[in-house]
């Protein structure tokens, strides 16, 4: 094992430890949680959670400033069961093992990474669907929305190829409140919902 790889593993393990501690402290009272992956400034999850004060919600994003803005929204609205954390999507799911189950997950306007050689950076991957299905409670749903037609087709194909996810073409969208990126699309976007099975 090279020094660089050993250092990477050490840093990753330290991040996972911090996330496990955060989950225990902040979501310890939850049996199940609604997650938003790549929550940006938290517009959507804050709106969703305001309509469901009994539901535990957590938004995660890679950008510290976006998380701070999202936290301020939750405080301002008095959302006592809503949390935001700086975390990478797969690392958060790894750290969630033994914690609350995932009842619902949103991925809204993820970075499309349009070039083929960059598709590996897209958040929704087969490995992500594997891990999300492992953490999901029965009948948990994943809601995906994008304004990027090729990314949508690609994401649908990932779900259709996955043995533990089923597209639900008639499922109503659970909540509408514009995300930061949704506002700049001018209403030109598409969505799908998929259900996890054990
Ligand atoms: C295009 S923005 C969309 C933000 C928000 N959903 C919206 O619609 O306004 C994509 C967000 O995903 C975050 N992101 C990208 N890859 C991520 C990853 N692997 N884990 C967590 N967040 C990620 C980015 O930091 C960015 O804030």
CATH fold name: Rossmann fold
Look at the structure and give the CATH class. Alpha Beta
Shape: globular
Number of strands: 7
**Element-by-element helix/strand order:** HEHEHEHEHEHEHE
Query: Which ions, cofactors or small ligands are bound in this entry?
Result: S-adenosylmethionine
Strand order of the largest sheet: 3-2-1-4-5-7-6
CATH architectural arrangement: 3-Layer(aba) Sandwich
Mean pLDDT: 95
Number of helices: 7
Cα radius of gyration in angstroms: 16 Å
Query: Could you state the CATH homologous superfamily?
Result: Vaccinia Virus protein VP39
Number of self-contained structural domains: 1
Strand content: 15-25%
Helical amount among residues, as a percent range?
Answer: 25-40%
Helix/sheet category: alpha/beta
Distance between the termini: 36 Å
Low-confidence stretches: none
Largest sheet: 7 strands, mixed
Commentary on this structure:
The mean pLDDT is 95. This protein has helices at 3-26, 43-50, 64-76, 89-95, 126-135, 149-160, 180-184; strands at 32-37, 57-61, 82-86, 101-108, 136-146, 165-167, 190-196. It is globular. Helix 1 (3-26) packs across helix 4 and helix 4 (89-95) runs parallel beside helix 5. It has a 7-stranded mixed beta sheet with strand order 3-2-1-4-5-7-6, sandwiched between helices. 40% of the residues lie in helices and 23% in strands. The chain is built from 7 helices and 7 strands; from the N terminus they run αβαβαβαβαβαβαβ. Strand 2 (57-61), helix 3 (64-76) and strand 3 form a beta-alpha-beta unit. The chain has a single domain (3-196), classed as Vaccinia Virus protein VP39 (Rossmann fold), CATH 3.40.50. The protein is of the alpha/beta class and 198 residues long. S-adenosylmethionine is lined by residues 37-40, 60-63, 66, 88-89, 108-111, 123, 179-182.
